[in-house]
């Protein structure tokens, strides 16, 4: 495979933008039963945050609890109601930065032996703090203390209100 990147044509060599055909019969839209128009149909919003790196002191071994280790945390929400799809306002959705801060706080609040309990505690904290109906938390140990060649280990927990 070549590392050469294709060059874009100069502005004067690019084809003129094509105009899209206009719908000449707008009256048909008034009686259209399709659910593809804005405001119709059901909308579900999924928000995913991946790879939040948090230094923690979770684990079974004394070394994990004393020295600590880096975890990668993924979070997923499904919002049945999200007015930001129409309003474009951050006030009408979940603030991703605030979610990351709350995950960090929940992961620092206390030490757990298992990733399962940590993920469950983060889920509970996010459901309580943001009032979402369901949340998924996945915690990955990139360097687990296992004396065999392992890439990483991860635990995923889903919770609903």
Structure write-up:
The protein is of the alpha+beta class and 161 residues long. The chain has helices at residues 26-30, 62-66, 84-87, 96-109, 115-130, and strands at 45-56, 69-79, 134-141, 153-160. It has a four-stranded antiparallel sheet, with helices on one face. α4 (96-109) packs across α5. Residues 20-37 have low confidence and may be disordered.
Brief summary:
16% of the residues are buried. This protein has helices at 26-30, 62-66, 84-87, 96-109, 115-130; strands at 45-56, 69-79, 134-141, 153-160. Mean pLDDT is 81; it is low at 20-37.
Features:
4-stranded antiparallel sheet; elongated
Secondary-structure-based class equals alpha+beta
> What is the percent of helical residues?
25-40%
- Largest beta sheet: strand ordering: 1-2-3-4
The total beta strand count reads: 4
Distance between the termini: 50 Å
Strand content: 15-25%
* Uncertain residue ranges: 20-37
Shape: elongated
Sheet of most strands: 4 strands, antiparallel
Mean pLDDT over the residues: 81
String of helices and strands: HEHEHHHEE
